[in-house]
Amino acid sequence: MAKNPFPNLIKILIIMSNTILSKDSGPIIPTTPLVTFLERVQQTALKTYGHNKKGFDPKLYVDLSLKQNLSITEKAFDKLLINGSVSVKEFDEFVEKYLGGADEDLVYVHPVDFVDEPQDFLPRVKNSEVRRWALEVHSLWKNLSRKVSDRVIDRPEFFTLLPLKNPVIIPGSRFREVYYWDSYWVIRGLLASKMYETAKGIVYNLISLIDEYGHVLNGARAYYTNRSQPPLLSSMVIDIYNQTGDKDLVLKALPALLKEHKFWNSGIHKVLIEDAEGTTHTLSRYYAMWNEPRPESSTIDKETASKLTNNCKTQLYREIASTAETGWDFSTRWMRNGPDLTTLATTSIIPVDLNAYILKMELDITSLANVIGDDITASSFTKAFQARKRAIDSIFWNSDMQQWLDYWLSNSNESKEVYTWNASGQNKKVFCSNFIPLWIQLFNSDVKMVDEVVQSLQNSGLVCPAGIATSLTNSGQQWDFPNGWAPIQHMIVEGLVSSGSEQARLVAEDIAVKWIRTNYAAYKKTGTLHEKYDVEKCGDFGGGGEYGPQTGFGWSNGVVLAFLEEFGWPKDLKLDCP
Ligand SMILES: OC[C@H]1O[C@H](O[C@H]2O[C@H](CO)[C@@H](O)[C@H](O)[C@H]2O)[C@H](O)[C@@H](O)[C@@H]1O
């Protein structure tokens, strides 16, 4: 990674954070003075524009940069606010004079390995219309490719963007920086596009974040240092290795993956739970190191918490940030009383998908250690994945429902070091995450069992004309029906394919076709793939996301290309929705 904007400060603050305990007794990683200042600008913008500014996006303000030193800028800002409020004209003039635009820190870069038609591109796609469209999707990588501008490298303290060394692929729209778990599907697509250098560069960037912060950040911004996102780095590394055979990547990635594994299996992320047979298991949960409003959504979080007491506010802010760590921000999946956002209880849940991802990480670390002949690591991680397999079977599996269910930790257990499993702790509500273990060979090698789980998926109501929905609850939240529509269905599909069950493969292909068609419909309407869809009607998507029209969505590109690579396209099938 390039120069650290705050040389030793971040390290000192992280060390201090281990000892600072807030009222809700979790650790905190303090944010930077620049983020705190820009949050003030954000609050003032909302107050100044009021409801006159359509589509007010709080994130825009913490993505602005400084034109001169923070102290000079803050002085000018304080002077502006001397009477408590400011006119729209004065505020606009201040922003113009002192702050740089939100899109000036990452600049366009042509990906070095992009060619219009890669050799051996999607060999299974024979249908000429689909091939033409797939090449257009492939060319969308160019729209989403960025590198950190020279100004950020020269003056990192003026920016909230973190100075990553290699180019990145961004999700698009208001998400102007690289994101952790989005990068997994982006890389799957880049591999289909044969863009190996771009894919490796992204992985090296994520590794540099582990070197610097001990975990992969939610995204590459100073305000994301206090949380991670679903841990999929090992999957990115193994997928790239399987296609390129690059051992150097493995050598560089392995130490970082070991550090990341520790992050998810120690401190607040680690949970001990004793099952019905008296065996104690170690599992992991999401838990952000933050208990204030998320800087990028501060005005929204304050509004959400406005009716609570101060103690409850602190707790809610922790839950909100922890939910952002899940990647599913927000969903009734994390609420005690959906759709009431103030009842978020993410830190009290042991999630199925997180533990499946960590088991996958353990399997990947074992394989990667074998590649470089590190027998000690391979053998200790073999034990680790076997133990987590037993834990997942014991804590999450529900044989009546034939799926794996999130486990809710009971309040009455809170003061104990080891929680006690109780059948009533399993959340019986259906989410697509209940089927994520299928992605992993240890859970998909028994064809009879896979067929039963597939049956339960098909009966669940989650399989819609647009693919697999995230939940069955219509809460208005982004990760609930009918908005919730997750790229993680790619993992379910991949698991069904690798199970070897004929029936499962047919179901997988059907889901992939639905998903591709929906994205095609979105593309025809907007010239880009879309983040959100109406799961009830293939292709009739709802409204262009929360914050206006999208300009691309990296993970959708990735999943479309990965599905086309696996299944090709049936010759006479139409791309349009039926
Ligand atoms: O700005 C609010 C939140 O935005 C992000 O979450 C959403 O977009 C991400 C980028 O595509 C995606 O990874 C995530 O799953 C989405 O819910 C961000 O990750 C949150 O931390 C942030 O608070």
Automatic annotation (TrEMBL):
Against Gene3D superfamilies, the record matches this protein to:
1.50.10.10
Q: Does the keyword Membrane apply?
A: no
Give the organism, scientific name.
Answer: Penstemon smallii
SUPFAM superfamilies xref list: Six-hairpin glycosidases
The membrane-spanning stretches of this chain are none
**Protein's name according to its UniProt entry:** Trehalase
Q: Does the keyword Chaperone apply?
A: no
Q: Which UniProt keywords apply?
A: Glycosidase, Hydrolase
- From the UniProt record, list the reaction(s) this protein catalyses: alpha,alpha-trehalose + H2O = alpha-D-glucose + beta-D-glucose
Say which domain of life the source belongs to.
Eukaryota
Q: What is its EC number?
A: 3.2.1.28
* InterPro entries with a match to the protein in the record: 6-hairpin_glycosidase_sf, 6hp_glycosidase-like_sf, Glyco_hydro_37, Glyco_hydro_37_CS
Top-level class of the enzyme under EC nomenclature: hydrolase
Family assignment?
A: Belongs to the glycosyl hydrolase 37 family.
Annotated GO MF terms = alpha,alpha-trehalase activity
